[in-house]
């Protein structure tokens, strides 16, 4: 069965099962078929960087990658790759709103550090931006492992909560400060609870007198960019549409990994549609099929391993439209894994 590509293809799964490798090989396979592909990694560990030979300084920039450096292709194709950088995303939206001068803010800088808490929200904003600009047929998303993936799915909820009614109320006051009110701190003090007020005054003492002003500026900046945030909320709804997205839950053919995948599926199910795929990576079946031991014990070992792998696939596969199998690649270099797995996707595309 061929798997038609969709606008967004999501690779999720627990740690180390091959999400990054399979996402990269999928991007290669699609681009070698002539599709315009953007591969985005929202994994702060940025393993994609090693696979694609990118550098930290490439973070936040679109980098073109030639498929011929991975696979034997008749004509040279390329795809774009993006290592997500929350600070670059903030810079982009700030510039779009003409707020370049306000970007140099201590709090915004902390929030948009790779582990600053805004990673997933900024990821949703970035994906939405590239979807709207229409430059790509498909955006392939390599997501962070386990719980961080759920954080990504819940990011739009966080956006909704952040820009709720009380935020708008707060900003009514902050807005006065932005338009030159003479006593912003006093006004701000009125609207925050005494607990927050205490905290702010404590932070003001330890971080310098301008802390509250910097805080107000940061919140004001986010408010002025709110449309970028709120338009990203639609992304969540789109993901649930079969015609819009392909979900690939990646696991590897080991007992505990399949168990972990099932538990992740439960957490993520409410965000997915039923048209999803289980990608079982590192399958041993192709090797076992070609292994013909003579020794009785080895024969038993072979048949036990085959049965166990098959049972895992059947057990896990019940919850998916289709199970895709990718074999263990006997090579040391991650790049070779990508090349071989791209072949696997090619077979599924034709
Ligand atoms: N089919 C395969 N055969 C052999 N090795 C593989 C295969 N798929 C992936 N690998 C290797 O397994 C390791 C983990 O793969 P990868 O980084 O893609 O996993 P991941 O799920 O993205 O991990 P993380 O959760 O840390 O982001 C890498 O060294 C990769 O090259
Ligand atoms: Mg990864």
Automatic annotation (TrEMBL):
Extract the SUPFAM superfamilies matched here: P-loop containing nucleoside triphosphate hydrolases (SSF52540)
One Pfam family named in its UniProt record: ArsA_ATPase
State the organism named in the record: Halobacteriovorax marinus
The residues covered by the ArsA/GET3 Anion-transporting ATPase-like domain are: 9-284
Transmembrane segments annotated in the record for this chain? none
**Taxonomic superkingdom:** Bacteria
Q: What name has this protein been given in UniProt? A: arsenite-transporting ATPase
User: Its catalytic activity?
Assistant: arsenite(in) + ATP + H2O = arsenite(out) + ADP + phosphate + H(+)
């Amino acid at each position: 069965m061929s798997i038609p590509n969709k606008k967004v293809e999501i690779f999720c799964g627990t740690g180390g099962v091959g999400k990054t490798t399979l996402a990269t090989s999928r991007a290669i396979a699609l681009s070698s078929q002539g599709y315009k592909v953007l591969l985005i990694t929202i994994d702060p560990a940025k393993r994609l960087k090693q696979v694609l030979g990118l550098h930290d300084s490439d973070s936040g920039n679109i980098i073109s990658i030639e498929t011929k450096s991975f696979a034997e292709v008749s004509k040279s194709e390329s795809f774009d790759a993006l290592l997500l950088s929350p600070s670059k995303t903030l810079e982009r939206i700030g510039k779009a709103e003409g707020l370049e001068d306000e970007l140099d803010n201590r709090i915004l800088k902390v929030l948009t550090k790779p582990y600053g808490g805004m990673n997933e929200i900024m990821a949703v904003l970035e994906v939405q931006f590239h979807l709207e600009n229409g430059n790509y047929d498909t955006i392939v998303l390599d997501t962070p492992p386990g719980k961080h993936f759920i954080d990504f799915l819940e990011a739009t909820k966080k956006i909704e909560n952040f820009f709720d009614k009380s935020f708008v109320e707060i900003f009514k006051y902050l807005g006065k400060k932005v338009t030159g009110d003479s006593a912003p701190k006093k006004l701000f003090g009125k609207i925050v609870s005494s607990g927050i007020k205490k905290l702010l005054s404590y932070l003001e003492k330890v971080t310098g007198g301008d802390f509250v002003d910097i805080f107000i500026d940061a919140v004001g900046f986010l408010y002025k960019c709110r449309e970028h945030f709120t338009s990203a909320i639609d992304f969540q709804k789109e993901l649930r549409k079969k015609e819009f997205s392909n979900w690939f839950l990646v696991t590897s053919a080991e007992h505990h990994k399949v168990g972990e995948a099932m538990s992740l599926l439960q957490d993520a199910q409410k965000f997915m549609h039923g048209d999803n795929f289980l990608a079982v990576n590192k399958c041993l079946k192709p090797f076992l099929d070609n292994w013909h031991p003579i020794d009785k014990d080895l024969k038993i070992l072979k048949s036990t391993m085959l049965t166990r792998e098959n049972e895992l696939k059947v057990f896990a596969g019940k919850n998916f439209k289709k199970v895709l199998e990718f074999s263990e690649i006997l090579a040391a270099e991650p790049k070779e894994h990508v090349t071989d797995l791209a072949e696997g996707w090619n077979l599924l595309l034709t």
